[in-house]
TrEMBL record:
The keyword Ubl conjugation does not apply. Pfam families: Glyco_trans_1_4, Glycos_transf_1. It comes from Actinobacillus pleuropneumoniae. The lineage of its organism: Bacteria, Pseudomonadati, Pseudomonadota, Gammaproteobacteria, Pasteurellales. Residues 746-892 form the Glycosyl transferase family domain. This is Putative glycosyltransferase. Keywords: Transferase. GO terms for molecular function: glycosyltransferase activity. The keyword Transferase applies. GO terms for biological process: carbohydrate derivative metabolic process.
Length: 921
């Protein structure tokens, strides 16, 4: 009895001690949790700050790209990569918290890693998670600062004018309102009157300019200097084989002409030097473009003399704004009732002082002789001293908006366009004549080419060759109101016809490419989240191989192929910019999607971009593969344009918020007929699940054709969609070089699924550790070795007698890998859509052991080319299968070649042929 009492007391003491330890652990955990919460808040603040720094730095790098100051970019690039590393790590934090089941679970994991192996173990866990997450998103950055691989961008062979609908980009200097109106916005109106879409962007917006270049077939650079950013944009056009035109409406690119100009030399020294430096920069930009657009014949002639191979003339027109404003003005009495006759001069800058001298003496004289004559100045003008005493006859109006300017002009009787007789002015256009004529003001102009080419002096205007003629013509118009009105009305009718938008628009046809001939092939546009050079995942391999075969086919019924994919942020791409490139005879549009948005099922930023691409390509058929990151709006953009749309259901993304039907604990959910209540419990949000499900299924239901890569996935989707799904089994690439297989002393078992339990690696490692298979070697592919990182710590293989870790193979060296193994282990823990690796192994005479996991088993003939074990097998059942294979192989005749049944396995060529027929449905 005493013994039991003593034992009871000891148990009480131990319980107290355990309670005390538990209390301390709880307290410690609470403190750790609180600390983590604070750290997370701080990390989010750091993340926000780092994002701003990264964006700022990337803009600097953008502006220096292709610059003549290339050596300056070295440290900026290094800093940018380091900052992006910090940014990427911080971006992964919310992903890690979400994937581990919330903040509390994440904190527990964090704490356990710290307790198990200290800081070193925690660092390894962080590195492993980061590496895996980057691998999943194909957004890698190596541990060493390395130059970015941009070689893939420089393989453009196709002419965009033969490839796309006409799409014009105008990259413009827009600080001068009159120039912007007549040469930029008016040009856009003219293009649109021809049914050609065009876009305007400021040359100072480098990022948007570069983005739009990839969505254009022809680019006009208006009045831009050869700054590094501009030369980079011109270089981008050359990369894409896009014709580039440099446009201007003044002779601002000839340094010699500017040096000898009285107007220029009347300015201060600093301004003169700036203009001369500008001339050099304008000339360089013009020559870099190679072709030009001028507003007058004289200007076009000077462009050719400067070295351009072509210079086209597109005159200023009466645009819609001018015509509508003039119509409104003329519908009401515009002349004042004060019995005054007004001479008007519009001067945009102080540089017009010299030009004004041509008419100034005559104006001063008629003002002195006629008290009823008023001289109206709109803008800036310094009057000579001989105008002193005439202040009451002078009206000054400040700069104003264009409609007001036309109204002030319409109140006048005589408009003047005096210009110094100098080569610089020979290149000027006749805007003053157009504007005066459209509001029925009579014009007197200097005898420069832009005016004498359209004015029949005495009929639709007047030409004054010298000061005395200016005086005579003023006098005649002042004294003869009928003659003045006759000139004005004739000029009005003349410019309405000669400078109508429809007429001037025909001048654009001189340099526009001819209309595309009828297509020899229909067009297919393919969408996949990854694509070369970022080939990642089975669906990507399928999309690439099928597209290559279609693109290389000469059959009439096959398609010309275009691709839309994602690209990671880099020194040459920012979020939601587009980069066009070409690989394997296929034109590819890469859209930059930030890493943190790659898992989005809805990406509203993508819709407009894809719409622009569709408008440019004008496809007959859209083939949707995996579009996470791009988002479901891709399907909507296609179906809303009545483009026939086929969707290949490569995974469960359309019906499962977790894409692969893997729960938060990393285990398969075992659903076949989807129960929304189970899904809601799985993701923890009713509203999120219902919104996602409705959004995706509504879009999917609009598709014309649904395809699945296996019978299992066909049945799965038909059960859950109540819509017909067609089987289009994935093919595989034909082996180039398959070595004969014979019995080996050591049987090599290969595994390629990655360090994740959902692929069954834990079963494989446990089986090899516990059973110590003789005459067997485990060969594991580590997908991160090629990136200078590791997925597997050496401790994973403790207790395994013989093993080898190899880097990932590609479609180019896949034969080499499968020639080196005898058996493929594929104990996947989820129901897969196809199992590409299984087929790749069998066609190369590699035996396969797989779980009963949906699509993969359709390639297995039990006991003939592989073995199927139960889906829920543990490592013991896997070990039995491994041992059976070892026994079978050891019993083989060493001289007998191993040949497996493979006739039922389709190649990509066969899949492509079947797909073409399905597209016709």
């Amino acid at each position: 009895m005493n013994y039991m009492k003593k034992e009871y007391e000891e148990l009480i003491e131990k319980n107290k001690l355990l309670n005390y330890e538990l209390f301390n652990l709880s307290k410690e955990f609470k403190e750790t949790q609180d600390s983590l919460s604070k750290e997370i808040i701080e990390l989010k603040e750091i993340k926000l700050h780092s994002e701003n720094r990264v964006q700022e730095l990337e803009r600097i790098i953008f502006l220096m790209e292709n610059s003549r100051s290339w050596k300056m970019t070295k440290y900026a690039r290094i800093t940018g990569i380091l900052l992006r590393r910090v940014h990427n790590l911080l971006t992964l934090l919310p992903i890690a918290i979400k994937k581990k089941g919330g903040l509390v679970n994440f904190a527990k994991l964090f704490y356990s890693k710290l307790r198990q192996g200290g800081l070193k173990n925690l660092q390894y866990a962080i590195r492993t998670f980061t590496a895996h997450q980057q691998s999943e998103n194909a957004f890698h950055s190596s541990q060493n600062v390395q130059p970015e691989d941009i070689d893939f961008l420089f393989h453009i062979t196709k002419n965009p004018n033969e490839l796309f609908e006409k799409r014009i980009l105008i990259i413009a200097e827009m600080s001068i309102p009159q120039c912007t109106k007549y040469r930029v916005k008016q040009k856009q109106e003219l293009f649109e009157s021809l049914g050609i879409k065009s876009e305007i962007v400021s040359w100072t917006d480098y990022i948007r300019s570069k983005h739009l270049i990839s969505l254009s077939s022809l680019v006009i650079f208006y009045r831009v200097p050869a700054y590094d950013s501009v030369l980079s944009l011109i270089g981008e056009c050359k990369r894409l084989n896009i014709r580039t035109f440099w446009e201007v409406d003044d002779l601002i690119f000839d340094e010699k002409v500017l040096k000898e100009s009285r107007t220029i030399n009347s300015l201060d020294t600093a301004t003169v030097n700036s203009l001369l430096e500008g001339a050099r920069l304008y000339r360089e930009a013009m020559l870099a473009c190679g072709e030009g657009v001028a507003s007058t014949p004289g200007l076009a002639k000077e462009m050719l003399k400067a070295g351009l191979k072509n210079a086209y003339i597109v005159e200023n027109a009466l645009d819609l704004q001018t015509l509508e404003t003039a119509k409104e003005i003329l519908s009401k009495p515009s002349k004042t009732n004060d019995n005054k006759i007004r001479i008007v001069y519009g001067s945009g800058t102080s540089t017009h002082n010299i030009d004004f001298e041509e008419a100034a003496p005559a104006i001063a004289k008629v003002l002195k002789e006629n008290s009823n004559v008023i001289f109206r100045i709109i803008g800036m003008l310094d009057l000579p001293d001989y105008f002193n005493g005439l202040e009451k006859q002078i009206e000054r109006i400040e700069f104003c908006k264009y409609p007001e300017y036309l109204r002030y002009l319409s109140e006048c009787d005589i408009s003047i366009a005096p210009l110094e007789d100098y080569i610089f002015n020979e290149s000027k256009s006749n805007i003053k004549y157009l504007e005066a004529s459209i509001v029925k003001a009579a014009s007197i102009s200097s005898p420069l080419s832009a005016f004498v080419s359209v004015i029949e002096s005495g009929k639709n205007g007047l030409i004054a060759n010298n000061s005395s003629e200016w005086y005579e013509l003023f006098t005649k118009l002042i004294n003869n109101v009928d003659y003045r009105n006759q000139l004005a009305n004739t000029a009005y009718n003349f410019v309405l016809e000669r400078y109508a938008p429809k007429f001037i628009a025909t001048q654009l046809n001189e340099f526009l490419p001819t209309t595309l001939e009828k297509r020899k092939k229909k067009r297919l546009i393919s969408f996949n989240v990854f694509y070369r050079p970022r080939s990642f995942g089975g669906a990507t391999i399928v999309a690439e191989q099928i597209n290559d075969l279609i693109a290389d086919s000469n059959e009439y019924e096959v398609y010309e192929v275009f691709v839309v994919t994602t690209m990671p942020p880099s020194s040459f791409m920012t979020a939601y910019s587009v980069m066009r490139y070409e690989l394997n005879n296929t034109t590819i549009f890469g859209i930059c999607v930030p890493n943190e948005e790659m898992e989005n099922y809805e990406n509203k930023n993508i819709y407009n971009i894809v719409s622009d691409i569709l408008e440019l390509v004008n496809p007959d058929l859209a083939h949707i593969h995996c579009i996470q990151g791009l988002g479901v709006g891709v399907v909507d953009a296609c179906t809303q344009r009545n483009i026939k749309t086929a969707v290949t259901l490569h995974d469960a993304w359309w019906i499962c918020p977790r894409q692969f039907m893997i729960k938060a604990d990393g285990k398969f959910c075992h659903q076949y007929k989807i129960d929304k209540n189970e899904c809601i419990k799985c993701i923890g949000s009713t509203s999120e699940y219902l919104y996602r499900s409705n959004k995706l299924l509504n879009s999917l239901n609009k598709a014309d054709l649904l395809l699945a890569p296996s019978q299992y996935f066909t049945d799965l989707y038909q059960v859950n969609l109540n819509k017909k799904v067609m089987v289009n089994k994935n093919g595989i690439k034909k082996p180039i070089r398959v070595l004969p297989k014979f019995k080996n002393k050591i049987i090599r078992f290969g595994y390629v699924g990655g360090r994740t339990n959902i692929k069954g690696i834990h079963l494989i490692l446990e089986a090899f550790k516990k059973y110590k298979f003789k005459n067997a070697e485990l060969v594991v592919v580590d997908n991160l070795l090629n990136l200078g990182q590791k997925s597997y710590p050496e401790s994973d293989f403790d207790g395994i007698l013989k093993y080898e870790i190899l880097p990932a193979y590609t479609q180019d060296n896949i034969d080499e890998f499968f020639n080196s193994i005898d058996v493929l282990l594929f104990p996947t823990q989820w129901k897969e859509s196809f199992g590409l690796t299984v087929r790749e192994a069998i066609i190369r005479n590699v035996w396969v052991i797989t779980t009963d996991a949906g699509g993969p088993v359709e390639g297995i003939i039990e006991g003939v080319n592989g073995n199927i074990i139960p889906f829920d097998s543990d490592y013991k059942q896997l070990a039995v299968a491994i041992q059976n294979v070892i026994n079978t192989y050891e019993a083989r005749d060493p001289k007998e070649e191993i040949l497996l049944e493979k006739m039922h396995i389709a190649t990509f060529e066969e899949q492509k042929n079947e797909l073409i027929q399905l597209f016709k449905l």
